[in-house]
Write a structure and sequence with these properties.
membrane; transport; CemA; Chloroplast envelope membrane protein; potassium:proton antiporter activity; 126 residues
């Protein structure tokens, strides 16, 4: 629908240009090359949008299926991982726990603070 509206707008602009150039034509048989290229470009953009929607949806399904399947089929492994993670975090001091909580929160929210990554880099290189 959006492409059709844009096509009609381009066709109207083309007809207006023809009227301004004083070339009276009653009927346009073939769209000019510029409009034809613009139509092809609009169709490509629309196809890419649909492809991105399908890819995002399939990625969401995969991201939901993997944890769900590991929960249903590997409860014993999850218990082992849970105990290991709890033991790991209980052995850390409070400032490092707070730093990990902030770092994980930054990572999942989408904001990557420069200072946090500088601290991680400093910890890894020292």
């Amino acid at each position: 629908k959006r492409i059709l509206e844009r096509f009609i707008e381009l066709e109207e602009l083309s007809l207006l240009d023809e009227m301004i150039k004083e070339k009276p034509k009653t009927h346009v048989q073939k769209p000019p090359i510029g409009i034809h290229k613009e139509i092809i470009q609009l169709v490509k953009i629309d196809n890419e949008d649909h492809l991105h929607i399908i890819l995002h949806f399939s990625t969401n399904i995969i991201c939901l299926a993997i944890p769900s399947s590991s929960y249903f089929f590997g409860k014993e492994e999850l218990v082992i991982w849970n105990s290991w993670v709890q033991e790991f975090f209980h052995n850390l001091n409070d400032s490092i726990k707070a730093f990990f909580i902030l770092l994980v929160t930054d990572f999942f929210v989408g904001f990557h603070s420069t200072r946090g990554w500088e601290l991680v880099d400093g910890l890894l290189t020292s």
